[in-house]
Amino acid sequence: MEVDACLACGTPFGRGFETPGEGPSISPRSAIRWSLLYPGLGHFRAGRGIDGLARAVVFTWPLLTGIAFLSLRPKGGFGAVGMLGTAFVLCAALFYAVAALDAGRAANGDDPLVSSRMLLWIAAVLVLSSVVSAAVIAGQGITTLRNR
How confident is residue 105, by pLDDT bands cut at 50, 70 and 90? Predict the structure, then answer.
């Protein structure tokens, strides 16, 4: 844990998240438009590829999870699965808007609203939420099978 660089190639561990010295010039408005097309594209076009990839993953995860939950909800009611699906889709929608704002800030050279560290915490919460959601869905399935 005390090593700050890769022992194989010598690359510093935080290099991918450093602000690039001379990146592509893109207007903040254009970066926002690219990000509205898909979160992360605006960062990529602004020369912050790893930040863009991280934002695309953190957006895609709750979106696909929410869609899956909403499509699998039990017949006859919204239930816990439907509420979980809605929560994941709302999380994706919120992150969609924030990613667009961050793309404009990245193109302008400003600090992001959602830092790399915060993205890591968001991803950790998504993993934990997915595990809890799976437990809720499994519990509902077991209860349904017992009642038959």
Answer: very high
* Phi then psi dihedrals of residue 12, to 5 deg: -60, 140
Which residues are CB-contacts of 141 (< 8 A; sequence separation ≥ 6)? none
Q: Kindly report, residue by residue over 56-97, the tens digit of the pLDDT.
A: 999 999 999 889 888 876 666 677 778 888 899 999 999 999
Distance between CA atoms of 137 and 112, rounded to whole angstroms? 36
> Is 10 a domain residue?
no
- Whether 3 maps to a domain, the answer reads no
d(CA 84, CA 78): 10
Q: What is the mean pLDDT of the chain?
A: 83
| DSSP assignment string, 110-147 | PPPSS-HHHHHHHHHHHHHHHHHHHHHHHHHHHHHHHH
Domain count, the chain: 1
125 in any annotated domain: yes
**Residue 93: other Cβ atoms inside 10 A:** 14
Range of the domain at 128: 23-147
CA count, 13 A, side-chain hemisphere, 93 = 8
Cα–Cα dist 41/103, whole Å: 8
- Domain membership of residue 30 (yes or no) is yes
